[in-house]
């Protein structure tokens, strides 16, 4: 994948591989649902199915956390929620700014799921002077002239870019110069960042294109089955295919990718 991102080692602190880090939010989402239903323990198979990951991979991932579960009992749900949250840095509050408050930025600002996961929307920023002061999701939009001050005053380290593609790199540069070290980019462009800055890119159209590929392949298999011919591509889930699931570009990782 083309990337403007700083190359980083495949492992993070305490030797947890990046691929494992990318799956931790999937486990956390499944565990949170269990916790909300007051389920006390869960087996690796049940949790793997709920997270859309294979259970051997899950056990390996949890071994990096030092969590091995209890034979015949499984994993303690509450403790795992705590452990994964701590590993992901979610036990602390992360102020986030969203830049570009159009259709997407406003939808993100209105999304309640950030706050419940420890991400507080500290400010909404837009270049359109007509938007300044207008409340979106109860937060007044601030003009981009204020960007540096907002970042500094709120101690913001995570910025979300929801501007048109052409504005994304200059916005990114300003965020980084102001002290932001993690960027979630929704604009369809590859961002260049200096060492020490992480960029994650979300592109729903790429996800749809991947689904279109699978739809096309399924249609090919059906045609082949009808004619008795061999399918053009190996069916998913066979030894010829990888062990990826339908959840993301890298297999069972969230639909978000390094820029
Ligand atoms: N990743 C995805 O899955 C996905 C989905 C939808 C849209 N998008 C992308 O998200 C971006 C926003 O889409 P939208 O539909 O909300 O667009 P929009 O036109 O409704 O909103 C863009 C906003 O950005 C503001 N803006 C422009 N230049 C700016 C700058 N330099 N600094 C700050 N704000 C600036 C505009 O004033 C506007 O309010 C686009 O790049 C679009 O392609 C991505």
TrEMBL record:
Chief subcellular location: cytoplasm
Region Disordered, residue ranges: 222-259
Nucleus among keywords: no
InterPro entries noted in UniProt: CoA-bd, NAD(P)-bd_dom_sf, Rex_actinobacterial-type, Rex_DNA-bd_C_dom, Tscrpt_rep_Rex, WH-like_DNA-bd_sf, WH_DNA-bd_sf
Keywords, ordered alphabetically: Cytoplasm, DNA-binding, NAD, Repressor, Transcription, Transcription regulation
Record-listed NAD(+) binding positions: 100-105
Summary of subunit composition and partner proteins: Homodimer.
Role of this protein: Modulates transcription in response to changes in cellular NADH/NAD(+) redox state.
Protein name: Redox-sensing transcriptional repressor Rex
């Amino acid at each position: 994948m083309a990337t403007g991102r700083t190359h980083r080692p495949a492992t993070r602190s305490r030797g947890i591989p990046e691929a494992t880090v990318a799956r931790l939010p999937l486990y956390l989402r499944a565990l949170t649902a269990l916790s909300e239903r007051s389920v006390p323990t869960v087996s690796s198979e049940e949790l793997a199915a709920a997270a859309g990951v294979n259970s051997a991979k899950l056990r390996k991932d949890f071994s990096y956390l030092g969590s091995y579960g209890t034979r015949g009992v499984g994993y303690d749900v509450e403790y795992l929620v705590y452990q994964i949250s701590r590993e992901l840095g979610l036990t602390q509050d992360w102020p986030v700014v969203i830049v570009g408050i159009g259709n997407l930025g406003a939808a993100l600002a209105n999304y309640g799921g950030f706050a419940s996961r420890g991400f507080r929307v500290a400010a909404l920023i837009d270049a359109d002077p007509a938007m300044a002061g207008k409340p979106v999701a109860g937060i007044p939009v601030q003009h981009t002239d204020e960007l540096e001050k907002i970042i500094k005053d709120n101690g913001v380290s995570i910025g979300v870019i929801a501007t048109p593609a052409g504005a994304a790199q200059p916005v990114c540069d300003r965020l980084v110069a102001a002290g932001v070290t993690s960027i979630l980019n929704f604009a369809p462009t590859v961002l260049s960042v200096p060492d020490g800055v992480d960029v994650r890119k979300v592109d729903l159209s790429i996800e749809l294109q991947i689904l279109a590929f699978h739809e096309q392949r399924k249609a090919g298999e059906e045609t082949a089955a009808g004619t008795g011919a061999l399918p053009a591509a190996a069916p998913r889930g066979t030894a010829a295919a990888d062990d990826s699931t339908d959840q993301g570009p890298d297999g069972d990782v969230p639909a978000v990718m390094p820029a």
